[in-house]
Amino acid sequence: METESTEDTGRVSLREMQKRNSRAHFLSIAAELFAERGYRGTTIDDIAAAAGASRATLYSYFPGKDAIVKAIVTQVWDAAEALYADFGALDEWSTDAIAGWLERVVRTWEQSGSGLRVQSSGAVPFDEFYLEYHGRFIAALTANSDLWSRFDDDEQQRRALLLISGLELFLNTWMVRGWPMDRAGAITTLTDSWCAILRVE
Questions:
Q1: Contact predicate 31/121, CB 8 Å
Q2: Which of 71, 81, 97, 162 fits a 20 to 30 Å CA distance from 42?
């Protein structure tokens, strides 16, 4: 009797699922420690102990602290890319649609505090993939060619980059650095800004 392999069925093996869960657990614990103690104040032993694992087990997943930080930043940026893809999938640009999307963005940032603080700390340089990711962000944001057709190709790139960089700076200053701001008012202001740049009538 033949048994189906996970490669044939597309299913993830139990071992692979456990490895993914362990990796995610290490990253979650590390993000909390880095956010609380800083990069220099957190050791590999600290992360392993807080995760309930040995130093050797942690090293089997990551070669060092720099790799852990890069993985945390990559997680944050993968989540951002998914959000921009959600915008790119919108059927229309209306005030309500854009406000609803921005509400989801703010909610995601609220749930990702530790990872965002690690990303904004600059503990490890990530210049080598900064431009690559922002190229992916722009591609995701501008996926609906019908809606973006009101601008030529160069203008699409400029406006998308302005929207993305402005949103990141605004949210980072407010939600990571701690600038006091009313949540509803912030979303309204962001909505007005996005609608203006996108020429939503």
A1: no
A2: 81
CA-based angle 83:84:86, to the nearest 5? 65
Task: Find out whether 77 and 130 touch, Cβ atoms under 8 Å.
Answer: no
Helix (H, G, I), strand (E, B) or coil at 53: coil
> Scanning the structure block, which residue is given the tokens 């005030």?
95
Block means of pLDDT (10 residues each) for the chain, length 201 residues? 46 82 90 88 93 92 90 90 97 97 96 83 75 94 97 97 96 93 97 98 85
| Residue carrying structure tokens 């093996």 | 13
Indicate the pTM of the whole model. Answer: 0.83
Q: Strand, coil or helix: what is 158?
A: helix
- Please identify which residue in the block is written with the tokens 């962000």: 137
